[in-house]
Amino acid sequence: MLLAARLAIAGIFWRSGRTKVDGWFTLSDSAVALFAEEYQLPWVDPAVAASLAALAEHALPILLVLGLATRYAAIGLLAMTLVIQFLVYPDAWPTHLSWMSLMTLLVAKGAGILSFDALLSRRLFRSAQ
């Protein structure tokens, strides 16, 4: 169940991140325009917001797939979802609630046995004895 939750959330945010870049590393003009015209986040320059969102939507899903720093990655995406919910798309609460449920599960339970978090925990615990 935890692996499925990690993969589901990672897929959602990875696909969103891919729409914000041209190639692998170039922020697209359309992403900046989207943040300037549609999202209009207060107190944040649209280019900065688009860059941070693209970075988070690539890095955090990778961590979730690997099961590495899972709780931190889930907290980051949970914070991002809360911003989207309250500042961008307040009527999309059914979708965001389902995402937040999966992320809250990951924060509470961690990555599960099939993860680098579990592997590192076993190795660190064994070496501490």
Quick summary of this structure?
This protein has 129 residues and is mainly α.
What does this structure look like?
This protein is mainly alpha-helical and 129 residues long. It has one domain. It has 6 helices and 2 strands; from the N terminus they run αββααααα. Strands 1-2 form a two-stranded antiparallel sheet. Helix 1 (2-18) packs across helix 5 (93-109). The chain is globular, with a radius of gyration of 16 Å. The two termini are 30 Å apart. The mean pLDDT is 95.
Number of helices: 6
Rg for CA atoms: 16 Å
* Helix/strand class: mainly alpha
N-end to C-end Cα span: 30 Å
Helix content: over 70%
- H-E order: HEEHHHHH
Major β-sheet profile: 2 strands, antiparallel
Keywords:
single chain, 129 residues, mainly alpha, two-stranded antiparallel ribbon, 6 helices
